[in-house]
From TrEMBL:
It is a multi-pass membrane protein. InterPro entries: ATPase_P-typ_cation-transptr_N, ATPase_P-typ_TM_dom_sf, ATPase_P-typ_transduc_dom_A_sf, ATPase_P-type_domA, Cation_transp_ATPase_P-type. The chain crosses the membrane at residues 74-101. Belongs to the cation transport ATPase (P-type) (TC 3.A.3) family. Type IIA subfamily. This is Cation-transporting P-type ATPase. The keyword Zinc does not apply. It comes from the Bacteria. Residues 17-88 form the Cation-transporting P-type ATPase N-terminal domain. Residues 1-16 have a biased composition (Low complexity). It is found in: Cell membrane. Residues 1-22 are annotated as: Disordered. Its main location: membrane.
């Protein structure tokens, strides 16, 4: 097989796995004999290993401190300081409690995300049967690259399009379906989600019956499993504009209510303490609603 440059498989330019099979082979620069070992090594250097990428784990204390000096937390510390300066200890401690509770929730979420990624990584097999240089051979699954021809195993090692045969696949870890679905080599169907296409199999799922051969079109972070893992990793983020605005308004309100110069400037009198405590409850409500929105987005991605 002629050595060619590795195909560009970025999300915007990746070939459609439902293209006619001869076209898909050309787009992936492969053939019926599979890739050569040399070409596979070259593509591995380009695309990276076929594995779920893990975030670097940080110590619990370090992560907790990071949450306590988060830009949004710093604004709340400023509001708490203003409350203590004004001798309104109840408000100050209420804001401190909000900071600590938020830091605790963020730390728990971080650890849950790490565990979720570890769980997803365990779905991938250690070995895969691949056809290279026209011969079947076993290689570490992490060495698979787009364009490889693979034979069905118990665990599917990458996102692939069936080229021969058929199998029943258990997609429950991706779709939640309790029964295996039939997968056959052949043309795809228009208007279906990738998980419903009858000729596609996905990384980390299980083949329960049948014999099939498939061409790999996505590995690592570009697989459906990799995308889900990426969503789970996205727990470290900057505050949203709404969160910044709420925190700023909380600091401004605390200053306006309890700092006499500002009261004189704006012509305001001190608000009742229960009103200010109600204002201090806004940040956790905003954080909670934002986390609920992100959880819904991850769930929609998983079952769409």
């Amino acid at each position: 097989m002629t050595e060619t440059a590795a195909p560009d498989l970025t999300p915007d330019t990746a070939p459609d796995p439902l293209d006619p099979l001869p076209l898909l082979r050309r787009e992936l620069h492969t053939g019926r004999r599979g890739l050569s070992s040399r070409e596979a090594e070259r593509r591995l250097a380009v695309y990276g290993p076929d594995e779920v990428r893990r975030s670097a784990r940080t110590g619990t204390l370090r992560e907790l401190l990071r949450q306590l000096v988060h830009p949004l937390a710093l604004l709340l510390w400023a509001a708490a300081a203003l409350a203590f300066i004004a001798a309104i200890a109840v408000l100050g401690w209420a804001i401190v409690a909000v900071i600590l509770v938020n830091a605790g929730f963020a730390l728990v979420q971080e650890r849950q995300a790490e565990k979720a990624v570890e769980t997803l990584a365990r779905y991938l097999p250690a070995q895969a049967q691949v056809i290279r240089d026209g011969q079947a051979q076993h290689v570490p699954a992490r060495d698979l690259v787009p364009g490889d021809l693979i034979a069905q195993g118990d665990r599917i090692p990458a996102d692939a399009r069936l080229t021969e045969g058929g199998a029943e696949a258990d997609l429950s870890m991706l779709t939640g379906e309790s029964t295996p679905v039939e997968r056959l080599a052949g043309p795809g169907l228009d208007g279906l989600s990738p998980f419903q296409e009858p000729n596609l199999v996905f990384s980390g799922t299980t083949a329960t019956e049948g014999q099939a051969q498939a061409i790999v079109f996505a590995t690592g972070d570009h697989t459906e499993l990799g995308r889900i893992a990426a969503l789970s990793r996205r727990t470290r983020r900057e505050p949203s504009p709404l969160e910044r605005q709420v925190a700023f308004e909380l600091v401004f309100t605390a200053a306006l209510v309890y700092a006499p110069p500002l009261q004189n400037l704006f012509g305001t009198a001190a608000l009742p303490l229960d009103v200010v405590l109600l204002i201090s409850a806004f940040p956790p409500l905003v954080w909670g609603s934002d986390e609920l929105r992100r959880w819904a987005r991850r769930r929609h991605h998983r079952y769409s």
